[in-house]
Amino acid sequence: MNQPAQIFTVPQPVERGLQWGDLVVLLAVMVLIYAGISVAVHTPLALRGPDISLAPEVLPHYALLSVGRMAAAYLLSLFVALLYGRAAAQTRQAEQVLLPLLDVLQSVPILSFLPVVLLSFSAVLPQRVAAELAAIVLIFTSQAWNLIFAWYQSLKTIPSELREAASIFRFNGWLRFRTLDLPFAAISLIWNSMMSWAGGWFFLMAAEIFIVGERDFRLPGLGAYLQEAANRGDIAAIAWGIGTLVSVIVILDQLVWRPLLAWSSRFKLEMVAGAEAPSSWFYSALGHSRLIRASQHVVRRGLTHLDVALLKWFPLSETQTQTTKRPPWRAYTIALLGGAVLLYGLYRAGSMLLLVSAAQWRDVAVGVGATLLRVVAALVIALSWTLPLGVAIGTRPHLAARVQPLAQIAASIPATALFPVVVLVIAGLPAGMNLAAVLLMLMGTQWYLLFNVIAGASAIPQDLQYTAGLLQLRRWQRWRILILPALFPYLITGAVTASGGAWNASIVAEYSDFAGYPRSITGVGSLIAQATASGTYPLLLAATLAMIGSVVTINRLVWRRLYRVAEARYRLE
Length: 573
Fold this sequence. Notes:
By secondary structure, the chain is mainly alpha-helical. It has helices at 20-38, 59-90, 92-107, 110-124, 127-156, 160-168, 173-208, 222-232, 235-264, 281-287, 290-310, 329-353, 358-395, 397-412, 415-426, 432-458, 462-470, 475-509, 524-534, 537-569, and strands at 47-48, 209-212, 215-218, 511-514, 517-520.
């Protein structure tokens, strides 16, 4: 049988090595973390938030509070993702700075974000307001990164013929965004939005109850309820909290995510109609609503007026050569001032790092190596089952209708709520805490891979699947020629966010305090958790920077190169 025609682009040179942007960004974030930690000196030495009730009747109110914080954080995440991803995808110069910055930010542990954000807000705002804003920002840090990566990946892999069509029709920035960029990325963004909410639920416990030394910040909500139940060892309260969380997830799935998936099927890139499309009873009900049908006309007219209005801000694109201009003196002045602030911050951060003893630096180095081994183990285990299951769900809509809600529920249940129980069960086994740590990392990261594989499999054009069937490709040939190349960009996006999530999860995986019995194992996450709880800020800064440096190096040497390969070779054409 003849080899099938190539459906992906030809290889192009792949970027290699570290870039200057990596070093600048690392130094800037080092100064930022130091500045946030130093603010702790100006906050009250002892704080105590409101008591968290474990009565079941408070759960509906707590659920509404948590969903409100999650929604606010998600809207902020989506807004930042659309702006950030486009800026990184449009120009090479911006990409050299924004992608290293994204690598750093998504690798900063949430428990290292907490002192920076929470104590900074507490220094200038009332405690309750500071805690609310900090919770939203910290949930944002668990939701935003995979959305940015998904949007960036979609923009970089738009087929060239669609780009050429947009240029021929002289679409301005707004029309291109509304008619090409956003529809092409819709499926990936929706699946990653579900994953963002799952990630937000995962870290909700840390965002609603947080202790720094004698400072106890807490907010009423589902996360605080589950954390308090775990601290008291109240299994019944944990069951009530998880039951409420599952109910909220099911409601959101039926009223939000399933309708969005059914709606996004119209944006699938294919020449023939698919055999089955995702369905939703709520979406069908909305389609038969007279009020909704009447409002569609109003929405279309509004979009038309918006298109016309935005033509004044974004004129029709013209092909023209841009001439480079020398930066004005103001830009040089700002650069000099920024450099001076950066150097001063590096001096102060370096002074704090000098307080870290040689033994502590040795513990940090050993901890990074131990955590890296657990992260790799979690990724390998996750990939072994998410790849076949994700392809099955993404290519069989009837299976997706049954399994996808279950996957979303499982992904959204905070493993941190179940971890104390897991520790009690397997801590007595040989290497029990190491097994428990890998299990918790797996529970927190496998869903990034699964949801991205499902999104990639859902986006495979139906005509290519028909062609593979007509060519009578064997199962392995189908995987090698069609499925794996089509999934490659989505796999890289899932692996990048999953690895970042695994490093973050190491903080709660390597150190636990259940019912007053602390347990820890060697790892950089354990060092960060213990330094945070004890207020040992020099060690917290050193361990955080070590984790950031490790993740950025891996992203640059492994994942970024694979992103270039995906852009060059595995874009549908």
